[in-house]
Design a protein that fits this description.
By secondary structure, the protein is an all-alpha fold. Helix content is about 75%, strand content about 0%. The longest helix is centred in the middle third of the chain and has 40 residues. The radius of gyration is 19 Å and the shape is elongated.
Amino acid sequence: MWVQLSLVALLVAAALWIIGDALIVGFKKPDPERFADFIELMGDDAYAYQLSASEPRLRWGALVANYSVPLMLLGLYAHGYLVRDSLIGIIGVVIVGIGMSLSPLAHATFYFLGLASHRAWNDFTTGTDTSASALHAQQIFHFLTWVWGPAAGLTALGGFLFSIPLALGNTTLPWWSVLFTPLVLSIPGSQLKRIPYPGKPLLDGALFNLALFGWALAFLTLSIIYPVG
């Protein structure tokens, strides 16, 4: 029962992170014609993605994911229990936990990047000197790359190590269950980004969380068919 409850917590957390990503990133890619000069000034189109979002939307996008992290960490109980007889699997779960613990800072930084981008865009469109506001936004973006990289990297590394005993059939789940893990699901998911449609920015920003939701659902179903604990 505790395994299933743990996975329900992970399922809820993944859903909340997807909602948070949707609120922050949105569904529509910035108009390349309207924002071309602004993107050239800033050096990246990341600054234009959140210009259509209001401050409350950005705020709730950051908070809804941030406060769901305890549920995400609770979801690791089922993973640890599944690979309890594998040292490399346990190490993987611990590393995933570290990566997840670092992720709220990276996600919340998008809120501040959004506000700074709004300020730079306002200066740009009103003809005001953009040197200070543009630099401020660029500094936040630089900070974001530093905090996002370790969080994503450690989560991916831990997920890979966790997948090893799963793929080798050293757990109560069948070996093919590894095909539903986030790392594997992210492979076909990354190809979906090639398809132009209104929701593409969300897929760009929430690919891992969408894969995590799929894994949580698959793990929950498999844990019932092949009792884990």
